[in-house]
Design brief:
Elements: H1 4-13, E1 16-19, E2 25-28, E3 42-46, E4 49-53, H2 57-63, H3 71-83, E5 87-89, E6 92-97, H4 102-117, H5 119-129, H6 131-142, E7 150-154, E8 164-168, E9 176-181, H7 184-197, E10 205-210, H8 218-227, E11 230-232, H9 235-251
Parallel strand pairs: 9-10, 10-11
Antiparallel strand pairs: 1-2, 2-3, 3-4, 4-6, 5-6, 7-8, 8-9
């Protein structure tokens, strides 16, 4: 038998509130930075509401080693906060809470603070996860100027499972299908789509844009190579050469 009462008591004894002179409380809990310092978490009252906050200490601490000085870094920070329901009030990270949800909110808040504190690591992961956002933005914002009929999540045959990320349909007899490839799953779906469209009588152009082709298994990479008409090994390569290839295909 597991002594659940002893475990519950042990947990409750690890969390306490220390009153401060400004009327708020410091949350004393076993949540630590990598160097062993405790996370700065406070509980304050805002009108009739309770709030967890950090009084700007997280950004101050982060600034010693990592500057949030670019749009991309600000996007990463905003994404972390929004995903966790935390507000940025002039550098003070705030999460509303109440007596009934305090423990759940505290765990969520400390996780958010820990993520922000490790933004240098998260930045690399986030840049990778932003591949499809960058891919989509380029197609909509940049290709939307020379080409005027662009469809997102397009199904040429209306069959479920055979869908391309984008289609350029300025010339309906010569459609262009654009597919972002970030994993084996994306590669296999793109392969299936290209094989299905090989039976289409229209003169279509299928293009696969990779985040990193070396991350794919050899099987899926080879299958896609045999099925798709053209591939770009990076988004930058596609940006440089893709528009000219697409324009030439549509006009030919």
């Amino acid at each position: 038998m597991i002594d659940t009462q002893a475990i519950t008591k042990s947990i409750s004894e690890k969390i306490s509130l220390k009153p401060l002179s400004n009327g708020s409380y410091q949350v004393i809990a076993p949540f630590f930075h990598e160097d062993g310092d405790m996370l700065d978490i406070f509980l304050r009252k805002d009108g009739d509401h309770l709030q967890l906050c950090d009084f700007g200490t997280t950004l101050m601490r982060l600034s010693y080693q990592f500057d949030i000085n670019t749009d991309n870094k600000n996007k990463i920070l905003s994404k972390i906060l929004i995903n966790n329901g935390v507000k940025d009030l002039g550098g003070n990270f705030v999460l509303d809470t109440d007596v009934n949800t305090f423990l759940d909110d505290l765990l969520q808040y400390q996780m958010t603070i820990a993520k922000v504190s490790n933004m240098d690591i998260l930045r690399k992961e986030y840049v990778s996860s932003m591949f499809f956002e960058y891919f989509s933005s380029f197609i909509v914002e940049e290709l939307g100027s020379p080409f005027h009929r662009i469809e997102r999540n397009y199904r040429p045959t209306n069959e479920r499972g055979f869908e391309t990320d984008f289609a350029i349909l300025d010339n309906e007899t010569k459609p262009v299908y654009l597919m972002g490839i970030r994993s084996d799953l994306h590669a296999s779906r793109a392969t299936a789509f290209c094989l299905r469209m090989s039976a289409d009588p229209r003169n279509s152009l299928s293009i696969a844009v990779h985040e990193n082709p070396d991350s794919l298994s050899k099987r899926d990479r080879d299958a896609l190579t045999n099925a798709v008409y053209k591939q770009y090994t990076s988004l930058d390569d596609f940006k440089a050469e893709g528009p000219k290839v697409i324009a030439k295909h549509i006009a030919a």
